[in-house]
Structures are given as structure tokens and as C-alpha cells.
Amino acid sequence: MEKVLLGKVAIITGANQGLGLEIARSYVLAGADVILCARNAALLQEVQSNLSELVTPTQKVLIKVCDVSVETDVQALVNETLTQLGGCHILVNNAGVYGPKGEIEEIDWAEWIKAIEINVFGSVLMCRAILPHFKEQGYGKVIQLSGGGATNPLPRISAYAVSKAAIVRFIETLAEEVRGSGIDVNALAPGALNTRMLGEILEAGPEKVGKDFYERSLKQKEAGGTQLGLGADLALFLASAASDGITGKLISAVWDNWEHWSEHKNELSSSDVYTLRRIAGRDRGFLWGDK
Fold first, then answer.
1. Of the candidate ranges 83-92, 94-103, 142-151, 192-201, the one whose mean pLDDT is the lowest
2. What is the pTM of this model?
């Protein structure tokens, strides 16, 4: 792999399995130093051992147990990154959970709140902690993992759906706050992945997640789902210099022709394409709905 991240340092949350691990592997192969965080220490140590076999003598793969919904954990992670790796250029907010499954009046409210804390507050806290460093150096990449809940309702998985829509709007807002500072902020939709989260849906069963969603998930498992490599490739593009100036977008690894977006940066920056927006009647040809 071309070393497009040589000399760069990346923080990757939720990096001990699934897409987070795949992104970490692609970043290491691209030349980056990485620090990986998750809540499971044993899995992190296993990942560190495996990735260490891929590094050059000058590269570093560090790990740190961290709950991104806890502010002190987040600040400790960022402090260790800056101290041990000498800086940071890339933040990948991958940590996330589905949360409770079932109708809103029946689910465990504490679990619903915890899902919001991890999926929304965790990503916001990570951004808050690293932004002063990004601003000081005049450069940074924030890559936020999104999901189907951002663009479609997900009955019976409401905490996940709400959190994904919320965090995409936060990313759009943050992109405007830092526009012109050399910091790019984007959300990445990786497609339907066959990871532990799919296993959660199948284990919950149709009575909790609904018959239609359960059957779609079962078909996804049988078909193999979207390859993890597609999301990792997009995460690598967004971390590289090729994407400089592309910001405030929700990008699908599966459906968008992002490989060629670097040729259209001016069009992208002056348009609301690939963002969350309200659909008005006029957008669907209704003549009666708008003034």
C-alpha cells in the first residue's frame, strides 16, 4: 500500500474489532502511527500484537482502554496521544452501540440514555478534546462513523437512529465552525456490515426489532453484507491529503463515487449535496404543499 499517511498520527475509537480494526489496519499499512481505544482491554492487546507485525521499525501502535462517554477517559486518551506520539492529525470516531431494542415505552430507559452517551456525547467529547490541538497546528481530519439511522427511521432501535442522525448534524455544524482552519470534518456511512452489531439484532429476535428488520438482517448475514474494506478505504481517503478541502459531508462507502471527489472540490464546497436536509413538497413535484 502507498504510504499516504506517513508521518501522520491517528486516534481510532472502538478499534478492537469490526470496522474500527479494519480502519486501523489500513492506516498502519499506509504509514500512520496509531493509538487505538476501546473498553475491552484483552481485545485491544490482541489487536496491538497483530498490528505490530505490520509496522515498520519507526512506526508505533499504542492502545488505551477508554470509555468515550466519560470525559476524563477522553482527555486522558488525547493527552497520552500527544505525549507518546508527539501530536495528532486524524480522529476516527468509530465507537458505537445499538442500544436497547424494542418499542420506546418498553425499553430500559437507562440503556437508551447510555447509547446516546456513547454514540453522541462520546464523539462530541473526542472532538472537543482534540480540536485545540488541530487548531493550533492548522490541520486536522475528523472522520465520524454514521449508519442507516441517520437517513432512515429504525423502529424499535430508536436510540441508535436518533444518535446517528444527531451526530451527522453535529458533524455538519462542526465543519462550519472550523471552516477555513485547515480542519476537515466528515461522516462516513460504511454500509450494512456483518459485525457483532448484526449478531445483536439476530439475537434480539423479531419480537424486539420487528419482523421486517429481522428478516432483512437475516438475509444480510446469509449474503455476507458489505465488505469492511469499502469503509476502510473511504476512511483512508478522508484521512489523506487527497481529501483536503472536502468537509461537512455524509459520504456512503457503497453508493458514492468518492474516489473521484478530489476532482470536484469546488462544486462540493458550494453545494449542500451529501448532507441531511428536509424534503419539501416541491422536491417531489407536489404543487399544493409549499407557498
1. 192-201
2. 0.94
Q: Is 117 helix (H, G, I), strand (E, B) or coil?
A: helix
CA 213, CA 205: separation in Å to the nearest integer?
10
C-alpha to C-alpha distance for 26 and 281, rounded to whole angstroms: 43
Question: Using alpha carbons only, what angle is made at residue 66 by residues 63 and 69, rounded to the nearest 5 degrees?
Answer: 150
Which carries the bigger pLDDT value, residue 132 or residue 213? Answer: 132
Q: What is the mean pLDDT of the chain?
A: 94
Write phi, then psi, for 13 (nearest 5 degrees): -90, 155
Mean pLDDT in residue range 55-78: 97
Question: Which of 222, 229, 230 lies closest to 257 in space, CA to CA?
Answer: 230
| Cell numbers that stand for 61 in this block | 501502535
Residues 6+ apart with CB under 8 A from 195: 17, 18, 19, 228
Cβ burial, residue 196 (10 Å; 0-12/13-18/19+)? exposed
Q: Binning pLDDT at 50, 70 and 90, where does residue 225 land?
A: confident
d(CA 5, CA 28): 8
| Residue ranges, CATH 3.40.50.720, the chain | 9-191+227-254
Q: Which residues are catalytic?
A: 146, 160, 164
* Residue 283, C-alpha cell as written in the block: 422536491
Q: What fold is seen in the domain 9-191+227-254?
A: Rossmann fold (3.40.50)
Mean pLDDT of 13-27: 95
User: What are the CA-CA distances from residue 184 to residues 11, 74, 172, 264 (Å)?
Assistant: 15, 21, 10, 16
- Taking the C-alpha atoms of residue 207 and residue 219, their distance in angstroms, rounded to an integer, is 17
The residues, any chain, with a CB within 8 Å of residue 4's CB and separated by 6 or more, are 30, 31, 236, 240, 241, 242
- Strand arrangement of the beta sheet that strand 250-252 belongs to: 61-65, 33-38, 9-13, 90-93, 140-145, 183-189, 250-252
Distance CA 239, CA 212 (A): 36
